[in-house]
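Protocol step 6 of 9: fold each sequence in the batch and record its structure tokens directly after the sequence line. For illustration, a two-sequence batch is reproduced in full.

Sequence one:
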Amino acid sequence: MFEYYADFWKNYVNFTGTASRSQYWYAYLWNAIIIALLVAAMLGGALVTGSFSESSAPIPSIIAIVILGLFLIALIIPNLSITIRRLRDGGFHWAFIFLGLIPYVGIFGSFVIFIFTLMPTKVVVRQTEVIKVYEVQQANSDDENLDGK
């Protein structure tokens, strides 16, 4: 499970290839856990000091906010990368990632991308490969027929 998250960071700029459903969702699970811990640290720092006002924000909360902000910024490119690879694995074109950017359609587009990431891996058999395999099998059977005569 953790190896999928390690792969998420190792392939953070890899926009080619595919990502399985488990790779995609385990990466999102670990990101959600880390974000929840940082938010808990942020709120915990405010609860310890008993202050929620902006003028007297506690130091641990400020540190947690900075770390959370940096973490969210660091997630932008890896999330794009794994989403594009997941769309490709599901048999969809990577350009569907832009559906979320269309005004008034963005929420619907994001929902469509979510549904696409839930789809199973699409196995594609290219027609040229099938023809080549058929030609090889045909040639082998012709050779066997010649040997038998």
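Sequence two, same batch, same settings:
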Amino acid sequence: MPSGRVNTSFQPLTSTQSSRMDNDNGSSEAQFVATQQSFIADYYCSLAALTLLVFEYAITFDREVALFWKRRASGASVLFMLTRYISLVTYVVRTMFLGHWSCWRYDMNLENK
């Protein structure tokens, strides 16, 4: 019966465990390609969403200036600005790191061949 505890300690795989996993789960190259394709698809979806987000910010910027920037700051306007621009910065950083990760892994694989 499980104790309900989660093991959070990290233990790297030994070379025999790693080779056994490769043999049990099929080709490691096929797994790498599938993972790489997943990263790239996620990157392109994130890039498309970021493009739509920036477009929406661009077409509503004049209303934002008129309604929020030219008036005295209130709690609601501060909350609006924080929500609006923190989400933009978060999405930009996520997309940059996701793109870097997918390209880095692919370049690393090419260098090893």
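Proceed to step 7 once all outputs are recorded. Observation for sequence two: Helices lie at 15-25, 28-69, 75-111.
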